[in-house]
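SAMPLE LOG
Freezer: B-3
Tube label: C17
Construct: single chain, 633 aa
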Amino acid sequence: MGEETITVGEVSRGDDAGTGVELPIVDLLTGRGFITGKSGSGKSNSASVVAEKLLDRGYSLLAVDIDGEYYGLKEEYEILHVGGDEECDLQVNEEHAGKIAELALEQNVPIILDISSFLDESEARDLLTEVTKHLFAKEKKLKQPFMMLVEEVHEFIPEGGGMDECGRMLIKVGKRGRKHGLGIVGISQRPADVKKDFITQCDWLCWHRLTWNNDTKVVGRILGSEYADHIEEMDDGECFLMTDWSEDIRVVQFERKRTFDAGATPGLDDFERPELKSVSGDLVEELQEITETQQQRENRIEELQRELKQKDERIQDLERQLSEAQDLKQMADRFSRAMMEQVTGRPLSAAPGRQSELEEVARKPVRRDPELEAELDAVRNGEREPESGQVPDASSDWDRAGTDSPGDATGTDSDDEQDHESVASESAEPEADPVDDAEGPANFGDAFDGIDSVGAEETTETDTEPTVSEVASGEERSPTATATETARDPLVSRLRDEIYSLDAIAVEMLRHYRDYGPTTPQEAHAAAGGSGDRTESYAVNRALRQRGLVAHVGRGKHDYALPSLVAEESVDPFEPNERLPDDERDELVQAIEAAFVEGIEPQTADESNGTAAADGGEVESDHADGVTPWPEE
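STRUCTURE (predicted):
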């Protein structure tokens, strides 16, 4: 048929024994493959043979090496080996993902992505996720045939457990990568542990020797029970080869790889590492620049962290000084309180104004001197006269208490009797004037004014509410319907153009899949007016499948896949969790189906809300959605 092929082995059993087995290069690079077999059965050898043959022809690929066994390819080929240890040409992380994809696709550099040496598994998965995202995004524009080879694929897309972002990205490549030129080959020794959605989407499959019961059951479901009975008897390197481009399932003996087998089981002989080819220094320098930039950024982060630590220590020191100053203020307040009680001749609790002010500062209750308490009680009861001379003259600070102060009563010796009566009357009827003067002695209050201001500054809130003008000017903007429709139009136009490019039989087959659901290519081909010949029907069906318009659903049947294609194509690869709403998806699907289904008009915004266009007619149908139901099997 004129297609470029590679020879990977020969038929080992049957009438065609000894016949060479050729695989089409384009289908290998852009399709989906699956190679499985127990340890030692030859599955990694088969994958390496495919890689060597493609490299011989000058094609690029990316091998995701989970066991560190693909570096042997460097014995004959100039391959960039990147990973997490010093054995690689360069140590990389997810910061290098964009550059790795650029080298692979734009400069046609074969790459081994060795994730076997990462101590933190999450770092390895993050790196693979970012590289896959960048490959998928770039291939949308470049559309260059390119293959990803993923070892131990069951660890990323398991059948039983949930998948993380890395697994979802690999599944996306498997489902939608073909139309962009990005293919994937999964390799696993446990097919029972691989997600069946991936296996059933593959175009070519190699089944090497399997012995575990759950794995042989998978063979029986996909190939048939007669193959499951013989899968345990396969020789090393021998496999059942199943492809979309060949009707028969062949028993094939793969060639032996030419390069160093780094995955072979170690023996007792001395291990000799082969001489490996080096890649261009310019390629390594480009990646090294990213490493150096990242190192500078990390150094700057460490420097800022040290500065932050120093500032934290300074803050703690200031807080300690503030705490000590507050303790001194409390001591001064207690001393002032005791002095004022001695001056007034009564407990300060009798004057609520000053008491409440000091209690706000003092954290602990004031403990009065018992001897001072006894002296104050004696003065109150008239048992003794108050002593003067020990109290500073505070008349300049307390102007209002100048004449009523007990200290003034002791100024003249001739008025002792009046002084005694004055003190007794003050004990019976305390006056609030001396204490109600809120300032107190200047020589104590002024000394601690700065401490109050420090606390006030640290507790002042600086956040302010937005003004009315600020709120009025901050008008919110939401995406308009026009912007959304503009973003979706290229998808509708592209898919409609692809449908227009199909021949009449292919369009009729697509319409048949849409109307009647899962069916075989021969049945769809016959229903579309074709001959129903297997070769012709599969050839036409292949055009639909390559465009993602139909999908294989098992047991030789295919189904209509336009809705899922629209949903997948509408997802941003860098935000895979944001899905297109069902109503928007249905609107896009209806716009595309108008290209090949009679009676369907593209749905307008008003029609989607339940309002028919003024000049549009209704489509007669027995069903609410206007689509003929699929017949039950």
